[in-house]
Amino acid sequence: MVIALTLGVALSGCAANMAAKGSDGPDLSVVSQEATRMDVERQLGSPEQLQQQANGDWVAVYDVEPRTKPNLARAAGHGTLDLFTFGLWEVVGGPLEVAHARRVRVTARYDNAGKLLQLTSKPKPIL
What pTM was computed for the model? Predict the structure, then answer.
């Protein structure tokens, strides 16, 4: 019992902390305005996959954790639930925050010269 209570108090605040800080990944709205492959890779890093298409275009797939803004209301909610459940809320709140900031698969299509033609993104499946 003492171990469980100590563990609950020690873990308390992790979800609230994640919500209050947000995540500092690349800003995808800025990336979509970039014009060259080098500019995109400066923001997203090296592609996970890179393939040349039959028409000469290149398709690159990036795996990124996007930037999320801090959310003080969500942080306060996690903190309140932590207090009322003696830290047990972290069992639910922690995974919720991880899912909220889940990784995104970004697909970019470039022409032969490396100019960005199209950029799409979609959340990766959780499992």
Answer: 0.62
